[in-house]
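LAB NOTEBOOK - FOLDING QUEUE
OPERATOR: T.R.
BATCH SIZE: 2
PURPOSE: Compare the predicted structure-token outputs for two unrelated chains run back to back under identical settings.
PRIORITY: normal
REVIEWER: second-year student, initials M.K.

ITEM 1
FIELD SEQUENCE / FIELD STRUCTURE:
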Amino acid sequence: MQMFSRLLFISSIVLLTGCAGMPSINWGGKQPVVPEPIIKTVTEYKTLEIYQPPLPQAINLEDVQFFVITEKNKDEKIAELEKLQSGAFVLMGLTPQGYENMAFNLQEIRRYILEQKEIILYYRKATQEDTDTDSEDWLEKNEELSSEQLTKD
């Protein structure tokens, strides 16, 4: 019985493992040569078309008229202002420091607009397909587009 159980154990191990533990034997025939597959990599570049809107129209500022009123010319300037304003006399004052602050603020607005324009031109150049066109050419073209828009309105 003990012999039978050993035989059963060994045969079950051989059956379970099969021929996995044995090396493959070449009986003199050549191994078939499997050609390696050829892998081709094709890169296709597509340019992304980005809409380039025109710059906003230039700022058209109105003239501002300042009157300097002193003790000597007070009556004359009041009469002049009443004539300009159809009989109403309204006076708005601005201190010299207030005037300097207003001038500084306008200069800051100008600086900010110029910096924004440079940023727009930078991104326009970075996203533009046509690398031959520089920012000056584009500004001229934008000027023409803006004048066309003004004539349509």
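ITEM 2
FIELD SEQUENCE / FIELD STRUCTURE:
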Amino acid sequence: MTEEIKHRSANPDMGFERQDMGPGTVYAFLIGLAVAGVLIAVFLWGAYHSLDAYARRHQPKQSPIAPPAPADTRTVSPGEVTSIFPQPRLETNERLEINDFRLREEQALNTYGWVDQQAGIARIPIERAMQLIAQRGLPTTPKAGVAPTSTVGVVAEAAQRADTSNAPKGKAKQ
């Protein structure tokens, strides 16, 4: 500690800046920043309204044979959305629509029902499917190089055994 004191007192010309920025300078900067923010907001508001007025003035004219439409064609009532615009449309209420979607998905995962009744394809609850897999196991595939048994091969083999055309008379192939 004494060395530190000696070091400081040994060179009196060396030191630190004793005067920092005053509070007036900081306040002036903050006020300037607020004024700049307000000016930018006013400029953007004016630009938006002038561009909006320009777009309103330059809207295309309605066809004389089309049914009368409102003067502002940029606004659409909810009833017109379903009749005019094709699918897919933007969501109008995301929370309700996702809740309905999730409810339908949960019902499909947890209930019995037909996927395609004419083809005989049904769905079962996922819990029941897991129980069946645990009881029966997963289907296996044959080893590489081994041909799976097929009805065509069985029928051809039976037909060959039953063929007596080349056998001596009175004896059938065994």
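REVIEWER COMMENT (ITEM 2): The helical segments are 2-10, 23-57, 78-84, 94-110, 126-136, 151-162.
FOLLOW-UP: none requested
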